[in-house]
Amino acid sequence: MKHNALIFDLDGVLVDTAKYHYLAWKSLADTLNIPFTLQDNERLKGVSRRRSLEIILEIGGVAKSEAEQEALCAEKNELYLTYIRRMGAEEVFPGVREFLLDARERGYRIALGSASKNAPLILERLELTGLFDAIVDGNMVSRAKPDPEVFALGGKLLGAAPKACIVFEDSVAGIQAAHIAGMAAVGIGAPEALPEADLHLPGLDGVKIDAVERGLP
Ligand code: BG6
Ligand code: MG
Predict the structure, then answer these.
(1) Distance between CA 107 and CA 157 in Å, rounded?
(2) Which of 111, 108, 154, 135 lies closest to 3 in space, CA to CA?
């Protein structure tokens, strides 16, 4: 095998949380009289909570102080958590658990590299925590993707050199972050959406790590 460590983004790679982010942001936007659509929600994927709020305020042409923005983020997260707390293992994307189990059996070390501060809770709800050797979440990093911090820390916690790591990502910024970190990047989603990825997969259903290794340059 060419690599020995795998680092996974969470939202959009292991599970669809975008729909819950949307419902929570939508409620908040409604209270602010800001029009917010599913199409707008696409712009929030892979983006930090605070930056997501800034984008929504920009859409509405609404200005808020620092303190107000903090409070709005906290309010949104409370709403988001009402959905997350109800999640179950059946929401894991098809094939993810099997892919992780197969990779572990073959000796790969596995980390999470997510911008979400809720990542540990989500992994618990999905019953996936035990399959990860390290978890890097939004509480542990200060710079957002495309900054490589989240993946660099993941590799470090796994004791793996960047060249030994494969990142699985569904966002353009995440693919860039992986490359800046010196890691291979597998794009989960349509090839047109992630032109910089080293390999494209629609998802992990029916995929094995040895096929990923063969597909990478
Ligand atoms: C990313 C999501 O994984 O986490 C973004 O793609 C989200 O949409 C970001 O804004 C931060 O998540 P959280 O859970 O800390 O608000
Ligand atoms: Mg993502």
Answers:
(1) 16
(2) 108
CB atoms closer than 10 angstroms to residue 146? 17
Tokens of 51: 């930056």
DSSP string, 160-208: --GGGEEEEESSHHHHHHHHHTT-EEEEES-GGG-TT-SEEES-STT--
Q: Is 11 among the catalytic positions?
A: yes
Torsion of CA 128, 131, 135, 138, to 10 degrees: -20
For the cut 90, the answer to whether the pLDDT of residue 1 exceeds it is: no
How far is ligand 1, taken at its centre, from the CA of residue 2, in Å? 31
pTM of the model: 0.95
Rounded to an integer, what distance in angstroms lies between the CA atom of residue 97 and that of residue 131? 8
* Known catalytic membership, residue 16: no
Mean pLDDT (the chain) is 97
In the beta sheet, which residues pair with residue 5?
109, 165
CA 44 to ligand 1: nearest atom: 8
Amino acid identity for residue 2 in this structure: K
